[in-house]
Amino acid sequence: MKLTENIPFANLSYRLTLILLLNLHLLNAQSWTDVKIDSLINLMTVEEKIGQLTLFTSDWATTGPSIRGNYLDDIRSGKAGNIFNAHTSAYNAKLQKVAVEESRLGIPLLFGYDVIHGYKTIFPIPLAEAASWDLVLIEKSARIAGEEAAAGGLHWTYAPMVDIARDPRWGRIAEGAGEDVYLGSQIAGARVRGFQGDDLAAPNTILACAKHFAAYGVAQAGRDYHTVDISEHTLWETYLPPFKACVDAGVTTFMTSFNELFGVPASANQYLLEKVLRDTWHFQGFVVSDYTSINEMVNHGFATNNEEAAKLALNAGVDMDMQGAVYYDYAKDLLMNGRISEQTINMSVKRILQLKNKLGLFDDPYRYSDDQREKEIILSENNKAAAREIARQSMVLLSNKNQTLPLKSTEKIALIGPLVDSPIDMLGSWHGSGQASDVISILKAFTDQTTNFQYAKGCDIEGSDTTMFDQAILVAKNADKIVLVAGEDFTMSGEAASRAKIRIPEIQRELLKRLVALKKPVILVLINGRPLCLPWETEHVDAILEAWQPGTMAGPAIRDVLYGEFNPSGKLPVTFPIDEGQIPLYYNMKNTGRPMDPNQKYTSKYLDMPNEPLFPFGYGLSYTTFQYSMATVDKTEIERDDSLNFKITVTNTGHVGGQEITQLYMRDMFASVTRPVKELKRFEKFYLGPGESRDVKFTLSIEDLKFYNQELNWEAESGTFLFGIGGDSNTDLNIRVNLK
Ligand code: BGC
User: Fold this and answer.
1) Ligand 1 pocket mutation pick from 67, 162, 495 by most atoms within 8 angstroms of CB
2) Residues 411 and 529 in one domain
3) Residue minimizing CA distance to atom 6 of ligand 1
4) Which atom of ligand 1 is nearest to the CA of 258?
5) Residues 551 and 405 in one domain
6) Residue 2: pLDDT over 50
7) How many domains does the chain have?
8) For ligand 1, atom 10, which residue shows the shortest CA distance?
9) N or C: which end of the chain has fewer CB within 10 A?
């Protein structure tokens, strides 16, 4: 569909050209684009400018209270310049036509949507993808999601979510890359590159959005939207780096978070938005608020009313108001009575128009609405194959006693559980416009490819109905091995989905206990959006496969792994605690003045619980085994301009080929600000055939030894550093290096 010849848009171009000619003298100082955009801003009324700062949801979906119903009138009058939750090529072209042909200036709309882990072809949830530690595949997943979204008429995704999360009770842990700063930052960059590609004007790339700025993942007690109270050091050391990685990767937009930071809600936080984002990182794009987060400053007890909230947000540098309608309602008055300046408004309008221009919307506002491309690209065989591959690479084998897995085709399998045939739950939270009907369930994959199995649902995901137990037990009794697929439904993680108890729901655990009592090999396949506490399960079942919420191709991917057609290689991007009482529990904690000593009462420990997790960060098994040689380093005394070269030999000592993810950890023993007991510094993922060896090499420089000192300067201090290389974060740090 090409509608560029429409009259008002041509009018706009014509008028802009005229104005440009009059402004040619400005070209020495500014770029052509800047002059063009400034000229457009000169044509705009105050209402039209505020319209560009306004983002309304369409009536297709909401993720919070819906405020406005008449958004079509608002588009027509130029009072709504951006729309989210509207998608498909045809629908968005229809809305675009209203903006371009019926509004006075014909400025094209910007369409946003939460394309978090896929648009129609749904990939594993981001936490799962992080478990692949595969930056190439993660970038590819975002690339495909971006391509599909762009073919569906979209320009902008609200992703990546780069909040480091160390509290698995928080449901939104599903949307991020887990607990680690280094891994999280690498993945943040990969996702931005994936969505945005090399050229924003290409019709298959979209704007990315780094969210939620900042520290949203530290909600107290893991309760969504709760208070955040952290030190400036922790902010810089742990929560800001993935956002900085997004800026370095060229991210074009930022979203503020719902929480407060240092007592100031993020949507009015000048420290974050001015000092960090604009002044320190020189971010050039625009900032959007989260859904009504500006209005919520009244509830925070920070702004006395919505008008003041609008003033605070605008003055702090929130360029666009998502759904709150506070700019819409109050910005004009604020401007008229001098509480905000015209320059502030113009600056925000300019940032937004600049990105509309970069997307090529001024050249062709319908560039992203192409019915043909939509038909060809969305859910294509290639995209589904990629989703299957990424899902397999994301799965983590947590235990495998007596090599219970992989299953053999000769074995009779009892396939049991409420998630075996529950397509929607494979998609996880924030599944875009992905549909259950496009999902290949586990039951379907088994039915298509396996003859030697029987299925029984056993129970619902939650509730107390045990009437289906007997049928499941009957099926189990008739089998050689029992596969129970258990876990959470798709609404049990994600936004506003915190859980105080992060167990498999009780009814499913009861069923599991009955199955275990049969004394046959039991394999637990987990479908879930967060770490779960699984102490009983780990002790009593024979194998556990963490499959997460694997997306559209869940069934084939899970079946591939269960039958050894794919050897699992994922490693946990987040710690699995034994018990909720240990939370927060993460690998790079500080040592404390009284580190745990089981024989000393007055040390940092519990009376009723170990300090250790059930499964540590970086952990994951394979159907083969890997042996590590002693690691070596080329120098043990270094100067500041030296590099450190590490080497270790990894050997596949088993009978099948497999991938290993080798990890390098560091500890700075003494520093002017205490350092964590371990920090991930490098990793490498590679394949080894049976019996094959590989020398894995890592190089570090002084940059990798730096931290934020007492003055918050990024520096390395002389002294002793320990290093260790291995297959998870339990690796011993046995290499000592001294920095002069
Ligand atoms: C979420 C954001 C999301 C927005 C738009 C909010 O509730 O916090 O992450 O992008 O809704 O759907």
Assistant:
1) 495
2) yes
3) 291
4) 8
5) yes
6) no
7) 3
8) 158
9) C
The region that residue 282 occupies, defined by phi over 0 for left and psi between -120 and 50 for alpha, beta otherwise, is left
Cross-strand pairs, 715: 707
538 and 437 belong to one structural domain:
yes
Q: Which two tokens stand for residue 507?
A: 């009814």
Q: How many Cβ atoms from other residues are within 10 Å of residue 204's Cβ?
A: 18
CA of 290 to the centre of ligand 1 (A): 6
Longest dimension (CA), the chain: 86
Q: pLDDT, tens digit, for every residue of 558-605? A: 999 999 999 999 999 999 999 999 999 999 999 999 999 999 999 999
* Domain span holding position 664: 626-739
Q: What DSSP state is assigned to residue 71?
A: H
Give the residue-averaged pLDDT of 246-256.
98
Q: Which of 163, 290, 370, 425 is catalytic?
A: 290
Ligand 1 pocket test target in 256, 291, 430, 498 with most atoms within 8 Å of CB: 291
pLDDT digits (tens, 9 = 90+) for 465-474: 999 999 999 9
> Which ligand 1 atom lies nearest to the CA of residue 175?
9
Mapped onto helix, strand or coil, the DSSP state of residue 322 is strand
| C-alpha 180 – ligand 1 centre gap (Å) | 23
Residue 290 falls in the annotated catalytic set: yes
Residues counted in the chain: 740
Assign 3 a pLDDT band (cuts: 50, 70, 90).
very low
> Kindly report the CA angle at 726 between 721 and 728, in degrees rounded to 5?
100
Question: Is 102 contained in some domain?
Answer: yes
CA of 172 to the centre of ligand 1 (A): 11
